[in-house]
Amino acid sequence: MPLLAMTHTHDTEQRLADLEIKASFNEDLLDQLNLTIYRQQQHIDWLLQEVRRLGQQQPEGGGAAPRSLRDELPPHY
């Protein structure tokens, strides 16, 4: 086999090995990103449940009764 053909075959094998390594790293990264997105969605769902729960605890009027500024004065006045 000529030297040029052997060099070409070796270069091709090296390039293929490099691509396989990159593909493996990309698969790992994709798995990590998917897990991160899954956990973030779980957290978002939990926060939405908390917002609903807090909304149910709020009085029916939708807000507090109007307060007087005199009610907000410190007790020593």
Automatic annotation (TrEMBL):
Coiled coil: none annotated. Pfam families: SlyX (PF04102). Residues 56-77 are annotated as: Disordered. InterPro entries: SlyX. Residues 68-77 have a biased composition (Basic and acidic residues). This is SlyX protein. The lineage of its organism: Bacteria, Pseudomonadati, Pseudomonadota, Betaproteobacteria, Burkholderiales.
